[in-house]
Amino acid sequence: MSVITKPGEAVAPVDTITVTIDGIEVQVPKGTLAIRAAEMIGIAIPRFCDHPLLDPVGACRQCLVEVPDMGNGRGMPKPQASCTLECAPGMKISTQVTSPAAAKAQEGMLEFLLVNHPLDCPICDKGGECPLQNQALSNGRGESRYEGVKRTFPKPVPISAEILLDRERCILCARCTRFSEQISGDPFIALVERGALQQVGKYADDPYNSYFSGNVIQICPVGALTSVSYRFQSRPFDLISTDSTCEHCAGGCSLRVDHRHFQVKRRLAGVNPEVNEEWNCDKGRFAFVSGRGEDRITRPLVRRDGVLKVASWPEAIDAAVAGLQAAGNSVGVLTGGRLTVENAYGYAKFARAVLGTNHIDFRSRPLSAEETGFLTSQIAGRTLGEGVTYGDLETAKQVVLVCFEPEEETGAVFLRLRKAVRKKGLKVTTIAPYASNGSAKLNATLVATAPGDEAAALAGIELDGDTVVLVGERAATAPGVLTAVVTATAKAGARYAWVPRRAGDRGAIEAGCLPTLLPGGRTVADSAARVDVAAAWGVDSLPAEPGLDAAAILEAAADGELAALVVAGLEPKDFANAVATREALEAAGFVISLENRLSEVTERADVVFPVALIEEHAGTFLNWEHRAGVVNTVIKQANNPMTDLRVLAALADALGKPLGVRTVAQAAAELAELGAWEGARPASADAAKAKPAKVKAGSYRLATWREMLDGGRGMDYEEALAATAKPAVARVSPTVATAAGLAEGDLVTVTTAAGSFSLPLEVAADMVDGTVWVPTNAPGMSLGEYGVLAGDAVQLDRGGVA
Amino acid sequence: MSGHEFQSFFPESGEVDMTDTSTNIDETTMAELRELAGRYPQPRSALLPMLHLVQSVDGRVSPAGIEACAQVLGITTAQVSGVATFYTMYRRRPAGRHHIGVCTTALCAVMGGDALLDCVEAKLGIHPDETTADGAFSLERIECNAACDFAPVMMVNWEFMDNMTPDKAEQLLDDLSAGKDVKASRGATLTSWREAERVLAGFPDGRADEGPSAGEASLLGKGIADAEGWTAPNPEVTKL
Amino acid sequence: MTDLLTPVLSANWGDEKSWDIAAYTASGGYAAIDKAFAMTPDEVTNLVKDAGLRGRGGAGFPTGMKWSFVPKDNPNPKYLVVNGDESEPGTCKDIPLLMASPHTLVEGMIIASYAIGCHTAFVYIRGEVLHVIRRMRHAVEQAYAAGHLGKNIHGSGYDLDIIVHAGAGAYICGEETALLDSLEGRRGQPRLRPPFPAVAGLYASPTVINNVESIASVPCIVANGAAWFSSMGTEKSKGMTIYSLSGHVARPGQFEAPLGITLRELLDLSGGIRAGHELKFWTPGGSSTPILTGEHLDVPLDYEGMASVGSMLGTKALQIFDETVSVVRTTLRWVEFYKHESCGKCTPCREGSWWLVQLLKKFEDGVAEEGDVDKLLDVCDNIGGKSFCALADGAVACVTSAVRHFRPEFEAGYHTPAYELFPYGRSALFEVAEGSHA
After folding, report:
1. In this complex, which of B117, B217, B238 lies closest to C252 when CB atoms are compared?
2. What DSSP state is assigned to residue A714?
3. C206-234 b/e (C-beta count within 10 Å ≥ 16 → b)
4. For residue B221, which residues of chain C lie inside 8 Å, CB to CB?
5. Within 10 Å of residue A481's Cβ, how many Cβ atoms?
6. If residue A704 lies in a helix (H) or strand (E), which one and from where to where?
7. Nearest to A113 among C351, C358, C383 (CB)
8. Helix or strand run (H / E) with residue A630
9. Could you read off the pLDDT tens digit of each residue along chain C, which spans 438 residues?
10. Are A566 and A327 in contact (CB under 8 A)?
11. A717 in contact with chain B, both atoms CB, cutoff 8 A
């Protein structure tokens, strides 16, 4: 039981009552279920349907106990399910430990559960970690007296492309159906039929496509639900488990990563009550094989005669050093969003102390000067608790979403919001072009807003001290929004949080991967801060001029103003203009790429260094709350690829300016030693003026965001997962559809200044007029290729691209 | 033997028949489905009546019917399917014009229900949960239908056929086959299963005034009381 | 001093067009509404409490007390739901009542709704009784037309709508919380209690669920007074009620009598067991109430009397079986019913009924093994009292009571099929070829 409080706030006194379980007195908070009270004194009552995060159902009846005294001197005539029995003051409970009747009831229940359960444990994925198997052993009667025939069904049945159902193994605890309905709000599976025929079912061709579907496999207390990717891959007792933190978004979900034979076999949601509770999204669970393709880089590559060739490490380092020496401090460093804090710190220090430049930026996406100012003045240097936390989302009365779709962009935030909506009556308001599926599941009030008008929309919403505003990274390109969030929340006494998308983003800011920022929230512009860092690093001075941001770095590289680029993991199509980004990479005099897979960057690089996959190194991610999530090395092989940090240290050594840190532990220690800046914080930046997009008659404003499962490379090779993604569509309002003579399902062409693409049309009843929504990065269709941003004008025509 | 055969393998359970996607649902049906949803404080309450209406239109719970209900109520098809497969009155395959139920719960069974079912099966040439090739009859082994004082009981299109015997059952089936007017023991002139389903959905057919007020057995106690001059106490007396 | 039979609810069943509002009004119908409206809602509730009316659906919970549990300060609408899902094997009293006199229920619903502050009331009737649903809908329409329903009923300022709802085939929907889920358009599976329906029932709002006969008994209480009602019956089981006699009796049928009449008295009235046969066993209130035998003919058929012999009054569905009937066959068929009707939610009911059917079949076929009777009883013990709702308790009650009274017949199942001991055709009311298993 965790009680989440704000720092400095006293823990609210909890009303407790005293109950006696098996003769042992225990004080529990009012409302505690008997099964939990027993846990508190170390008595494990067997159970299947019970799950602390799901509403009690009392279906499996495994956890029966006797209640000789309800607290009023009277006993309960029948055994009670302890998972639904609320403790009452003075209640006496006898579990299987002291009550022969409870023990017999439990034995009987296990015997019933096994009546129709197949004896296929030796080939069942769950065998070895199966609550039914375990509890049959600990609380069962050993031998079944059942001599009848077992219920059989055809099997397995795919309930989605990634999950298979074996109905014979199912014990109908309804954990999966309750999860789908209560937690994620996707009841595409339901109990069907009745009596002995009752089973979990989906309908026809409507699969269980939920972003959170994998959780049902994890909470299934038998082997009824298995994943296509893990099925028959391993036995649980042959796996080695490592705790880690998910690399796919800024949510910071804890993970349990299971590997065997130096290969990750599966990933499970880790238990972290303060962050992801016990859930994670399917991307975090299933998308971990992208580094296993033939495009994996394991040896350095050096361009010789225009062709990238495998090279030895000394060769590659020599080549890199030659290029960097030639460039001097005319180098730009683009770090992307996948880095741990320690790796990011390596780049930040490498840029300043080794290369002598502030041209460093982690943002491989559309950005703005307003955002740079916002991140510099409002985000950098803040610590956990100073800002909003997951727990705060549960205690807030209102959450306002600005340029943020939690279900698509940070799944764990969505689940926590949904929990607060269901359990605590949280009111969610979303400033968005239409109410997405995720918004509908949050029962959100839509303030229908065209891209570019968000700041004005925010002004119209009443905020108060119990309000939290969550603003997404897309606000970067919505002029004035970030500033409006800061001022409006300050005025109302409300709080806000900036929720970036990538796992490394928040840490990159703290590490100093911005042209304006040194580590720990120190600004480049602050001479005292520069002196502080220079002293810590043992260098004479640090460059004083704020550097170029990512967009400017690319422009400068294209124009020949920067001589070299050092690039970590990023994709050109993620930038505002993919074509220009590729051109810049090609135009740049010298490009060093640190990557784990061949990419559009490595294709254009002069030297490529292989770096470790997430499972091959340790480190830390800072999530959107600024909470540290530990990444542990899962695969421990002597020949694991090096970290980005280690490669940078090698380059620094070769350049004659040692980085001073080469291991993750050293980097972490140095960053901790440096600490957060205690000097003055910069004043907030000026707002960019909102200039409503001028959209000519016949044009529409573009609205867009990234969907969770999209064309991102991190999901590569996990085809079952990809098959559960939403199909890409273009969405318009009924008015727009009617005016354009378009109907649901029509193929339409969206035309930008840089070309056209076609998508099927979907009509959204609540879509703001004059707007067309498309996904940012559907497989094969990235807006970056067209250089268009949310708010830009596009044309919409019937029919496909000719 | 008419006892329930114990079945343990369920190859086709879990959903309605997805191989037959035919439907008669049109805009009129959709409007009626919406009307049903509008009759309740919360629309989902109308799901059972809506599925009855789907049966009256499609002769079974059709895939299109499930999808229509989900659409009207804004719930998932899986949720509708969960409901459609829970209740025994919802049929997976087309019912016959007349749907015959023979009660074989304990009391009716021992009083002749089992033999009646044998007789009906032989007469129609089908087993329970089947429909005759000509679509005239479907057969169901039903559970207690709350007419035990008229046992053994059969139901035709959910109208009572009381105190049945094999002879009466054969006559009944012959008459229905011949298209003759057949009156329920306590109910209206038999129409068809689909028309019955429409009434159950909530669209009356104006036949409430047909049939008797009660069957003979229902009136037995009242008759004896009348004959004996027995009544409830006089309220004027109990007031004192 | 009270007459042996006391037709009140059934008094008009034989009237010409008894189901029509004209006939009902002519016999004094709908007069009780005005009497109720002249009282405060609490006074109506207290009157029903004072009368001692107990639920007629089987559990016998005091009706007025149930009404008084509805919280006054709850801002949600209040609902009355009448349980007309009559499906318990042997039970056949509400269906004839609704068929013959639906207006009695409508009138009772108006008074009950007024008492609990409800403005939308529901009648949930099992779907398999088409004509009853026709009559009930028709009665509601007539009541609206006559101003007994709708806005400002009888100028009282009180509004009420009644919705007649047809079920779709599920015995479990007779369980009140399963009925609520069903009425909300869901699978009819019982809900967790607490919260109790009186606090969070239909649409999570305060809800009273009463049996058809319970609500139909309200108008006569309002019309004639609590003392009148409680002058009938026994000390703790007040009033008149409908007893349904079925099975191997000379004349099966409905008998409305004060609570506490005995089966012997009822058999005497109806001509006894069918000619040439004798009583073997019977149920007092449907198949879920433990069976009794000839020993129990003189036990009062009230809540206390039946409890005193280890059974329950239940729905007063007296199913009579004579000596031609195999108790093994009957028990198996009942358990098959429970297996068929188990909702599937909880383990002991779902899996236990599946197992019991197979076990009992071995007895029927004469292939049970030595010791199987004890196994049968132990499996029953692992089900009874362990399930989510009372359905499974009913399923094992018929087995355990049958073994209690007829153990040797079960033990005969170790070697001899039931259909050899009790040729099945002999229990039929018509000629069945000898040797048939039907």
Report:
1. B217
2. G
3. bbbbbbbbbbbbbbbbbbbbbebbbbbbb
4. 5, 7, 10, 243, 253-257, 269
5. 31
6. strand A699-705
7. C351
8. strand A628-631
9. 799 999 999 999 999 999 999 999 999 999 999 999 999 999 999 999 999 999 999 889 999 999 999 999 999 999 999 999 999 999 999 999 999 999 999 999 999 999 999 999 999 999 999 999 999 999 999 999 999 999 999 999 999 999 999 999 999 999 999 999 999 999 999 999 999 999 999 999 999 999 999 999 999 999 999 999 999 999 999 999 999 999 999 999 999 999 999 999 999 999 999 999 999 999 999 999 999 999 999 999 999 999 999 999 999 999 999 999 999 999 999 999 999 999 999 999 999 999 999 999 999 999 999 999 999 999 999 999 999 999 999 999 999 999 999 999 999 999 999 999 999 999 999 998 766 666
10. no
11. no
B21 to chain A: which residues are within 8 Å by CB?
Answer: none
C390, C392, C398, C338: which is closest to C170 by C-alpha?
C338
* CB of A646 closer than 8 Å to CB of A662: yes
Contact B217 C169 (CB under 8 A): no
Strand partners, A607: A302, A592
How high is the ipTM of this complex?
0.97
Residue type, A107: E
Chain B residue at shortest CA distance from C221: B235
**Terminal C-alpha separation, chain B:** 62
Q: Give all strands of the β-sheet with A92-94 in edge-to-edge order.
A: A24-29, A16-21, A92-94, A64-69, A80-81
With tokens 């703290």, the residue in question is A510
Q: Which two tokens stand for residue B239?
A: 């007031």
Structure-token pair, residue A179 = 């999860």
* Bridge partner residues of A782 (DSSP): A777
**Closest approach of chain A CAs to the CA of C423, in angstroms?**
26
Name the residue in chain B with its Cα closest to that of A156.
Answer: B11
Q: Give which of A560, A518, A601 is closest to A334, Cα–Cα.
A: A601
**Strand locations in chain B, DSSP E?**
98-103, 137-142, 154-156, 159-161
Q: Does A744 touch chain B (CB under 8 A)?
A: no
Unique residue bearing structure tokens 């970690």: A129
Helix, strand, or coil (residue C77)? coil
CB atoms within 10 A of CB A662: 20
Residues 115-134 of B with CB under 8 A from C: 115, 117-118
Chain B residues in contact with C401 (beta carbon < 8 A) = none
Q: Which residue has the tokens 């002999």?
A: C426
Query: Residue B102 in contact with residue B113, Cβ under 8 Å?
Result: yes
Closest approach of chain A CAs to the CA of C329, in angstroms?
19
- Kindly state the tokens that stand for C154: 């009888």
CB A87 within 8 A of CB A19: yes
Contact yes or no for C200/C206 (Cβ under 8 A): yes
Q: Which residue of A has its CA nearest to C347?
A: A60
The chains in contact with chain A, meaning 3 or more Cβ pairs closer than 8 Å, are: B, C
Distance CA(C297)–CA(C310), nearest Å, equals 14
Gyration radius of chain B's alpha carbons: 21
CA distance A151 to chain B (A): 5
Size of interface A-B (CB pairs under 8 A): 68
For the beta carbon of residue A755, count every other beta carbon within 10 angstroms.
13
Q: Which among C325, C243, C255, C251 has a CA at the least distance from the CA of C284?
A: C243
Q: Which two tokens stand for residue A762?
A: 């979907």
Q: What are phi and psi of C347, to 5 degrees?
A: -60, -55
Mutation site for B-interface testing, chosen from C1, C4, C18, C92 by largest number of B Cβ within 10 Å: C92
Interface test with C, best of A104, A111, A199, A200 (most C CBs within 10 A): A111
**Type of residue numbered C35:** K
Is B22 exposed, middle or buried (CB count within 10 Å of its CB: 0-12, 13-18, 19+)?
exposed
Radius of gyration of chain C (CA): 22
